[in-house]
Amino acid sequence: MMKRRVVVTGVGMVSPLGLDVPKSWEALLGGVSGIGPITRFDASDFAARIAGEVRGFDPATFIEKKEIKKMDPFIHYAIAAAQEAVDASGLSIRDDNATRVGVNIGSALGGLTIIEREHAKLHREGPHRVSPFFIPSSIINLASGQVSIRFGAKGPNLAPATACASGAHAIGEAFRLIQTGGADAMLCGGAEAAVTPTGIGGFAAIRALSTRNDEPTRASRPFDKQRDGFVMGEGAAILVLEEREQALARGCVPLAEMVGFGQSADAFHLTHPRDVGDGAARAMQQALADAGIAPAEVGYLNAHATSTPAGDAAEARAIRQVFGDAVSSLAVSSTKSMTGHLLGAAGALEAAITVLALRDGRIPPTINLDEPDVDLDCVPQMARERSLNYAMSNAFGFGGTNVSLVFRRVANG
């Protein structure tokens, strides 16, 4: 079967580094950390008291005031990022094409803020006080649902919940839909707003979070010997993917072409990868095979690397296994060192960052990398200029789910 070509025509971001793409990208290239003390709630009794919070976000900028209360913040972030992505793409969704435009936005945890609020209200005031908006404001697929309603997109409407691979899975499956003719355009990515008492408390309970509370900007340190866990982040990232000929016909200049998607399972452990990283390696190998390229053709890899001791080491081994001798010319960075870990939105944010790196020929750094414990070029501390032809983004999740995405610079044709 002949597969149609797919291009990225728009990107939107809401992140701990900024409320849009220009601000977030500038901060990433500047090596700025978005991590700070938690301000959303009193975290003084928590083991981890730091996070990458979205700051200064006003949902009323994007959403009618009466509608705001019907949505958890993760949906607010998704709508804001989708609006930026659609505006950037120039895609017009009309009656004559609406059934060919779909939405696929994933999340790991969905509406924790609303769940906590309504649970407390139930026990404090009784069942009659539970909001009628509780369910539709908190379930994971309502980010896709609300974005679909906002833009009138009547095509496939999906919402993967594959832990920290959710956003990357959403992009990969959207890519497949367009390739195989199931849609002509997709708004896809991830959204998360889990900086809440339950979110922080739950991850702290399994000792996944950094407790470097006195040095928040230095707490997220992927690939560094002194890493002690990840830092929670929040936000959303949305890509507009389109069938290439359609995009070119309307005069669009794509940001990049998407060419590869690989996915696998570790089938090993709830929260830990195998030491050898074989599941991650298989996802990367599949993505390269899908793209039809050799490992040596990839110039940049945005690693999943969350800053956990076991996870970073396993991914580094997987990268070395897949890239072999070509690893010496591969630049690998973890932008979670600046954004923290956005859980279900992480893979989408990092895919968007990978697209921007291709577009601009600039690789964001891994900050806080003082004592590397992996034999990789991790782009320490400072961004790097480099002309790139292909770039890869990894995203892995609890349950052993793995995704790799490959993008191509549009100048390659």
From TrEMBL:
Pathway listed for it? Lipid metabolism; fatty acid biosynthesis
User: Which Pfam families does this chain map to?
Assistant: ketoacyl-synt, Ketoacyl-synt_C
Role this protein plays? Involved in the type II fatty acid elongation cycle. Catalyzes the elongation of a wide range of acyl-ACP by the addition of two carbons from malonyl-ACP to an acyl acceptor. Can efficiently catalyze the conversion of palmitoleoyl-ACP (cis-hexadec-9-enoyl-ACP) to cis-vaccenoyl-ACP (cis-octadec-11-enoyl-ACP), an essential step in the thermal regulation of fatty acid composition.
Cross-referenced CDD domains: KAS_I_II
| Name used for this protein in its record | 3-oxoacyl-[acyl-carrier-protein] synthase 2
Taxonomic lineage from the root: Bacteria, Pseudomonadati, Acidobacteriota, Terriglobia, Terriglobales
Q: Which UniProt keywords apply?
A: Acyltransferase, Fatty acid biosynthesis, Fatty acid metabolism, Lipid biosynthesis, Lipid metabolism, Transferase
Q: Where do the TM regions start and end? A: none
- InterPro entries, from UniProt? 3-oxoacyl-ACP_synth-2, Beta-ketoacyl_synthase, Ketoacyl_synth_AS, Ketoacyl_synth_C, Ketoacyl_synth_N, PKS_Beta-ketoAc_synthase_dom, Thiolase-like
Q: Quote the PANTHER family the UniProt record gives.
A: 3-OXOACYL-[ACYL-CARRIER-PROTEIN] SYNTHASE, MITOCHONDRIAL, POLYKETIDE SYNTHASE-RELATED
Q: What is its EC number?
A: 2.3.1.179
Q: To which protein family does this belong?
A: Belongs to the thiolase-like superfamily. Beta-ketoacyl-ACP synthases family.
Write one Gene Ontology MF term: 3-oxoacyl-[acyl-carrier-protein] synthase activity
Q: Which reaction does it catalyse?
A: a fatty acyl-[ACP] + malonyl-[ACP] + H(+) = a 3-oxoacyl-[ACP] + holo-[ACP] + CO2; (9Z)-hexadecenoyl-[ACP] + malonyl-[ACP] + H(+) = 3-oxo-(11Z)-octadecenoyl-[ACP] + holo-[ACP] + CO2
Report the residue ranges that make up the Ketosynthase family 3 (KS3) domain in this protein.
3-409
Q: What SMART domains does the database record attribute to this sequence?
A: PKS_KS
